[in-house]
Amino acid sequence: MKYTTYFATLLIVIFCSSCDTKNQDPNSLFSIEIQGNKKAVSNADTVTFTIKSKKGNAIDAVTYSVNGEKALANEAFQGSFDFSNTTLGDKVISAEIESGGNKYRISKSITVLSSVKPIVYDYKILETYPHAIDAYTQGLEFVGDVLYESTGQYRASSLRKTDYKTGRVEKNISLDGQYFAEGLTIVKNKLFQLTWRENMGFIYDLETLEKTGTFAYNKSKQGWGLCNDGTSLYKSDGTSKIWKLNSETLAEESYIEMYTNTSKIDNVNELEWVNGAIYANIYLKPAIAIINPSNGAVKGVINLKGLKKKVTQHNKLDVLNGIASKGEPNIIYVTGKNWDKLFKIEFFEKK
What we know:
mainly beta, Immunoglobulin-like, Neuraminidase, 2 domains, 8-stranded mixed sheet, 5-stranded mixed sheet, elongated
């Protein structure tokens, strides 16, 4: 009887020992080790990584991927990945490990920063124009010499067609009171306008400013800034993300995240497409970031400190917001929320 009990117990121990590994948390058995223990790398780096067996389990094979893209691995199960063609932000290194007839999957995050230190630009004012002091500016865009403007606030939001030289509002379309208007952009004969938290954008006929349609957001829960490259739309949502939208379907196709060589940039607001780059106002900051649209790298920063002091000071005066371009090299037009002036500025590298 004793021997029977002994052998039964032994069989259970042997059986369970073979099951233990299979049922254990893979992260308790293996880990991904990044060369240099790096938590962040630049998009100019090729990063190597390998698998560590925490409990001595044999490693028979490893397959690596980074954000779903297959990574190279050598016979010693060391992997590598070139980050030069990726967007910036947090990426996930995944490994599928074969060990003792079982398969395990583990992952580890790494942040990809820009390899470029942003150029800092100073500015000078070339011209100053009158601007409606009641305009809580959310978006600006030129078509020729005509300036289109979207203004915010509940029960005060509007779409305006303006003579920018005189500040005269030639046409003013008021939005229903439940909408808080945000950025706008124009593609061919269509004008697109965002709302803030209403999960909806509006489409207008450019010539008549008659509303012709609406579109809903998907993963980007809020609407902040909007611009276009002639083909696609780019939309900010108040985070570090800029979403790329199909100009025909308005579907969100992908996104980039704004990063410098040291950190992520949040609160991305008003957008303007200028000579192949995205210019972005950072909410609450007197600065405009110049962004590489392919990966999110901040290439430059225009420091507009002091500009707000050059407008009439009053109790509703708010922050810098509103960027427009007429295609002139190193020249943009900027204003702010309830500013009574629109500025034509030239920016240049700070010495």
